[in-house]
Design brief:
The chain is mainly alpha-helical and 104 residues long. Helix content is 57%, strand content 8%.
């Protein structure tokens, strides 16, 4: 299930646009930003404990901090190189489920 994390924007034109659909506040940064991500990850862990989080379009430094923080708590990855592993993992999971259902 795709999810968009909206942490605000610093684009004053967007903030002033009546048709802008995003959060109408300055972009979160620093500790406030990471607290926001913490709340999101905690909600995902509670509602969907076996989920996988794919962080797309996060800045390199930000993504690295997020991945380092959560790598031992929840299955997570960022972008291209890891995407190949996701496809491989999904295929194994599919094959494993087919094998298990044929045995039972």
């Amino acid at each position: 299930m795709p999810v968009v994390i909206d942490a605000g924007t610093d684009n004053q034109q967007l903030l002033a646009d009546d048709e802008y659909l995003g959060m109408r506040h300055q972009r979160l940064s620093g500790e406030a930003y990471f607290a926001y991500i913490d709340r999101f990850v905690a909600a995902v862990e509670k509602l969907f404990p076996k989920s996988l989080l794919h962080f797309e379009d996060f800045g390199r430094g930000t993504a690295a901090q997020i991945l380092d923080k959560y790598q031992d708590r929840i299955l997570t990855f960022k972008e291209l190189a890891s995407s190949r592993w996701l496809v491989f993992w999904a295929r194994l999971t599919f094959l494993d489920s087919r094998l298990l259902s044929s045995v039972s």
